[in-house]
Automatic annotation (TrEMBL):
Alphabetized PANTHER family for the sequence: RNASE ADAPTER PROTEIN RAPZ (PTHR30448)
Alphabetized InterPro entries for the sequence: P-loop_NTPase, RapZ-like, RapZ-like_N, RapZ_C
Residues covered by the RapZ C-terminal domain: 164-282
Annotated binding of ATP, by residue: G8, M9, S10, G11, A12, G13, R14, N15
Residues at which GTP binds: D58, I59, R60, N61
Sequence ranges assigned to domain RapZ-like N-terminal in this UniProt record: 1-156
Source organism per UniProt: Jutongia huaianensis
Protein name per Swiss-Prot or TrEMBL: RNase adapter RapZ
Keywords from the UniProt entry: ATP-binding, GTP-binding, Nucleotide-binding
Primary gene name: rapZ
Amino acid sequence: MRFVIVTGMSGAGRNSVMKMLEDMGYFCVDNLPVPLIPRMSKMMLEENSLEKVAVGIDIRNQQGLLELDDILDEMLAAGVRYEILFLEADSSVLIKRYKETRRNHPLALQGRVDKAIEAEREELAFIKKRADYILDTSHMLVRDLKQEIDKIFLGKDEYENFFVTILSFGFKYGIPEDSDLVFDVRFLPNPYYIPDLKPQTGNDRAVYDYVMSSPQAVTFEKQLFEMVEFLIPNYILEGKNQLVISIGCTGGKHRSVTIVNALAKHMKQLPYSIKVEHRDIEKDRKQGK
């Protein structure tokens, strides 16, 4: 089990990081009372039910922070391995963020934010010393922060947790609403007008071979793959974690199904999770067409 404690200065991006970890498949618990941390980690280890857990702790857990140093030592002695991510930012940046969001610092109450930030920095100094990773978010955009989180917690340059859905559809049934990219393959030769192929679908070899025997189909699929291969890493840099590629023909039964299958086969060489769906493949058949 990978057990991560996310903490640091209020306003430095802890909530954003917890959401990013959740997208990576972590079971996330925010602002868990400190005395419950060892109980939770022990329970997770004994049940072996979760592989990745992240716990958020901030200055609101003030009384518990007094016990945290000893609790972390006890967890290590008990064989519980954990990692601490500490989020830092310049005081001037934190003050600006609080003014922009019009939120109160947990320690400010009716006092000044700058004094509260310095008090918080002093109280968290001990856990910063124990941190495995310290990220200064002063000049980071959300996408920059995500890149750093990916480097730490994915542990590699691959992105198996980026999900790509390749979806075939029929234009006469409407474009899928969740599409990120939409492509029209109605320019390709149509098996619908071949009597032996009309009742079949792009999942059948005869239809697949007929469509892909067209030079236009081969060129289109090749160039589409190259474009998608280029786009995905740039989408990841912008913080996307999934992509829906919709490919349509008239009825969503022959040409679009063929191209989706060809593209999916090609994309298996890439380090992403690929899912294929054929939304309208059976609709014409049900309507007797």
